[in-house]
Amino acid sequence: MSLSSTRVKTLLSACGAYLEGHFELRSGKHSQFYVEKFRLLERPEIAGELCAAMAEAYKGKGVERVAGPALGGVVIAYEVARALGVPCAFAERVGEKLDFRRGFTFKPGEKVLVVEDVVTTGGSAIQVIDAVRAAGANPIGAAVLVNRTGKSLELGIPAIALLEMDIAAWEAKDCPLCKQGVPIVAPGSKGTGK
Question: Which of 90, 118, 99 is nearest to 190 (CA)?
Answer without folding.
Answer: 118
